[in-house]
Amino acid sequence: MGKGKGKQRKQIILPPELPPEIAEDEIQVSDEDLQFVDENKDYAGFVSRLDTHSINRQVTRVEGLSEDALEALYEKRRRKALDQKENERIVVEVAPVDVLPVKSLDGEVYYRTFSQAAEVPENEGDVDKSMVKMTKAERRAKLKKSKKEAKKLGKESTEAEEVQPTQQESALAEVKEDLTAEEAFETKKRKLAELGMALIADPDANIKSLKEMLQFTKDGDQSIVKLGLLSLLAVFKDIIPGYRIRLPTEKELEMKVSKEVKKTRFCESTLLSAYKGYLQKLLALEKQPIFHHVVVRCVCTLVDAVPHFNYRESLLVAVVRNIGSSDDVVRRLCCSAIKSLFTNEGKHGGEASVEAVRLIADHVKAHDCQLHPDSVEVLMSLSFDDDLGKPEVQDDNNKMKYKKNKKRKNSEESNQLQGNDRKKSKKEVIAKMKEEVAADYKSVSYTPDVAERKRMQSETLSAVFETYFRILRHTMQSSEASSEANGNLTSSGSGAHPLLAPCLSGLGKFSHLIDLDYIGDLMNYLKRLAARGSNSDNSAQKMQNLTVSERLRCCIVAFKVMRSNLDALNVDLQDFFVQLYNLVLEYKPGRDQGEVLAEALKVMLCDDRQHDMQKAAAFVKRLATFSLCFGSAESMAALVTLKQLLQRNVKCRNLLENDAGGGSVSGSIAVKYQPYGSDPSLSGALASVLWELNLLSKHYHPTISTLASGISSMNSAQNQVYINISPQQAFKNLSLEAESFKFNPQGSTQKSNSKSKNRTTALPSTLAGDEPPRIDENEVGKKLSRHFALLRDIKENERLRGELDRTTTSLQLYEEYKKQRKSAIKKSKRSVGI
């Protein structure tokens, strides 16, 4: 042991070699190192003061040895390293592919070999392991170097292993992906169908499948989501019960019930939770354009099919929100759903109708009356019961009788013995039970009592008329604001006031249900709107806010309101007659609606049997002039109205006579006819002649020419055949759509019964509604040529008359000039003579 320790002590360990010296030009210093040194100059100042020579000598010095002995040790270590390299040479056999084999004289084949020296690390080749130990810094550097080499070798191996797939392999991969996607789609479709069929076949047993079907609406494939929504829609339509589900309370859950009740409660709760999740999914997908149509279709179908079920409010909100959509498909679906809700109140008892009307009113208010007309037109589908107040009188009488009989019974029972108290208690118990049963039946049934129906109807009416009056007020305010702003653009009826037309139509339909306290304000609004845009309205001269059709609708609504409340109103309608008289000349076929004009003529002139003679004559003359200017449909409606006015006002038939000084009453009335007058009562139409009928009898359309000839031959002394057709029907029969089918030649007139053969006129077959014979093109061509020749002659006559007037005026001015010249000459001569 002692000898071993002595040997270890005598062992000499040489210091490691110093790192090689590198020139300063080859040293590369990064910017970060420079920045670090610049920032910490105070701490790095000692490096410049180090004595490198003494440090090197101290490091390379070995204790107890002289320089010669140290040099001998270095030489010995070098020789030992060279000997080790020679001994570590390895013989490597060359592969047969690389080098040709050699055949010896003995016949043996062998491959050539060469020696390869084993790779010796640089540090080990220079330093003897038995004499020199590595420092910690060297070991760390060596470990880092080995790790980096291992990483490089791993990356190279992985890059070599990764082989790029060929085009054929990529195509096969794509085909496989498509096939797997199609298979998955078909599998999901089949699964949806199986679950849906099972639920429809036995809902109670497969009620849990609703949640599984609901998971398909969360799929990544859009087609699967749409199929899931539509499949759940079909299932819910079939399995939803005919009553509203009420979940049990905590007390009811604590009670012991039978298995059937538990099963029913479980099915109802599962159905309600799945239905709620389905609606939430619909409302979430509504914001995405891809699913918008499918979601709206599902919501509208549920509103139409199950309006009595839970969560009806969410469905109605979604439908009303899209009722004014710019998409025609979405808007039609929502409008049809609301209309079916109004017409089929037996499904929900009327409560859904009240909610829908309130939502529509709020929707109109929120959008400031700027919606599509269909959003308010759906209110026309509402129906109200006018006889709800009548049973109340009978009920009050029955209550009074019941109270009297009850008092009598109480007085009689007070005289009886106390033994009857037991019977009385039994009767009270029975009556109480009957009341409870009646209350339960009432809560389940969808037929509310009279008081409830009256309440719902009053709420519906208040919401409807609130919407209508808001639209009227908005129209007035916007028109006044636009007239004050003095804009240069003319707003069309469908642009500035899109809801005015359906609002006026609704007021005309429900005018008999308006409260009498609001009728006066309504008539004032209508009068101001009808005058909006006329020449007499100063504020409307700046900007015409309402079209002719809208102003005509205001006049129609005013007459309907007046006639439905005739007993309670005393309103002068003269202003509306003035507006109609002026609007006839402002009408333009391409811009305005002919149906509205025909309805105004029917409501204001044909239905009203009491007319002043001057006013009736003015309308007759204006309608005859109107018939010359426009198409066949408008001319036919005007002529039908004209004939009815002449038949009811016999004195106005004097306009048919062609006296020398005008009409037959022109001598007694010292008034000249004013064709452009604004007031029909002051136009002086009785002093004129219906010369327009002579031109209309030569009209190119045979029906109009026949009717005009019949009107011209009317005689005040003979009875006439009253026309049963209205201006609206006449306009419809001769409109542009039906003109090609309703075109008769002049000679085809329908003969009346034997009683009407002796009368002067007969109705044309076109007005009677019979199918006409074939068109005689030659006859039509002749009439058209005569018509346009006549128009050309009229224009030529007007031109000649204008030239004659100008020539006459110039001659008169020349004569006056000559007279003044002569008088001036005479005055000058007199002054000279004086």
UniProtKB/TrEMBL annotation:
Q: Does the keyword Lyase apply?
A: no
Segments forming domain Nucleolar complex-associated protein 3 N-terminal:
188-278
Q: Where is the composition biased (Basic and acidic residues)?
A: 390-399, 771-780
Identify the stretch(es) annotated as Disordered.
141-171, 390-427, 744-780
Q: Where in the cell is it found?
A: Nucleus, Nucleolus
- Residues covered by the CCAAT-binding factor domain: 552-708
Give UniProt keywords alphabetically: Coiled coil, Nucleus
Main localization of the protein described in the UniProt heading: nucleus
Per the record, where are the segments of Basic residues compositional bias?
141-150, 400-409
Superkingdom of this protein's organism: Eukaryota
Compositional bias of kind Polar residues: 744-764
Q: Which residues form a coiled coil?
A: none
Q: Which family does it belong to?
A: Belongs to the CBF/MAK21 family.
Please report the name of this protein according to its UniProt entry.
Nucleolar complex protein 3 homolog
| Source organism (scientific name) | Hibiscus sabdariffa
Q: List the top taxonomic levels of the source.
A: Eukaryota, Viridiplantae, Streptophyta, Embryophyta, Tracheophyta
